[in-house]
Q: What sequence folds into this?
């Protein structure tokens, strides 16, 4: 007697298809979390890097930094470091998705009766959970070096929410680039491009000190909006300034990630579905 395996049909009703996609996405999320549990050293090293940067800026360079309007430099520094840590997600997403694609794992997933969006959505959920863990570690580091929020718990939670929203948006940029290039070696080129974005912002330097056109680009940087918004919500010292972009930092910190997600999420799902088998 031989046993036969029946592949379940694709659900026809929208509600059933949505439930199917959620279940499959959670399966992929669990796969990624299992990989992290089996490789704790990689996770620990990834968390230690931003802590090292905080200690370097806070204690090595902090004595020579003057905060406009006065205030503690480490309270000024930490919102920028939180936002910069969120931007590192584009590299982590790219590396994981590009590696799966180059090894044929993505093709195996596409050959299974899975929802077309499950692989990329599951990956983004896992990365967001990892980002929440990294943000918690960074907050602990900030508290240890003297950073505090002064705007109340609700405002602080809103600030943390904006940081995770930024991370969610850049995750989709990383996923899209990984599916487009499918080359893990291109991560080095991506890292070279990410660092100018990090420093062309108001995280460490005031845009008012830059040449006019460069200062405008720095203020238009989505990272700058999140940094300004979180400094306001945490009631930490900032650069000040009366520009329109500075006055509406919170709406921009919401709008930029939503716009980026609206562009790169559907592009990533469509590109995944069109990959060659």
A:
């Amino acid at each position: 007697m031989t046993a036969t395996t029946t592949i379940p049909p694709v659900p026809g009703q929208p509600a059933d298809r949505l439930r199917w996609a959620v279940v499959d996405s959670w399966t992929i999320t669990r796969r990624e979390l299992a990989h992290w549990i089996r490789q704790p050293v990689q996770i620990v090293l990834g968390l230690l890097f931003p802590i090292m940067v905080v200690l370097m800026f806070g204690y090595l360079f902090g004595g020579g930094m003057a905060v406009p309007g006065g205030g503690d430099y480490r309270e000024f520094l930490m919102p920028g470091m939180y936002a910069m840590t969120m931007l590192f997600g584009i590299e982590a997403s790219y590396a994981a998705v590009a590696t799966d694609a180059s090894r044929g794992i993505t093709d195996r997933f596409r050959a299974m009766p899975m929802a077309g969006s499950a692989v990329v959505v599951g990956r983004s959920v896992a990365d967001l959970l990892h980002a929440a863990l990294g943000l918690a570690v960074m907050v602990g580091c900030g508290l240890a070096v003297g950073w505090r929020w002064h705007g109340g718990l609700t405002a602080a939670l809103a600030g943390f929410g904006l940081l995770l929203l930024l991370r969610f948006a850049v995750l989709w940029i990383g996923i899209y680039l990984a599916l487009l290039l499918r080359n893990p070696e291109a991560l080095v080129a991506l890292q070279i491009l990410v660092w100018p974005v990090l420093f062309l912002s108001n995280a460490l330097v005031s845009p008012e000190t830059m040449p006019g056109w460069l200062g405008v680009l720095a203020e238009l940087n989505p990272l700058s909006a999140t940094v300004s918004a979180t400094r306001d919500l945490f009631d930490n010292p900032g650069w000040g300034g009366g520009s329109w972009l500075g006055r509406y930092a919170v709406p921009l910190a919401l709008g930029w990630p939503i716009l980026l997600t609206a562009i790169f999420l559907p592009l990533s799902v469509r590109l995944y579905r069109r990959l060659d088998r």
Confidence is low (pLDDT under 50) at residues 1-7.
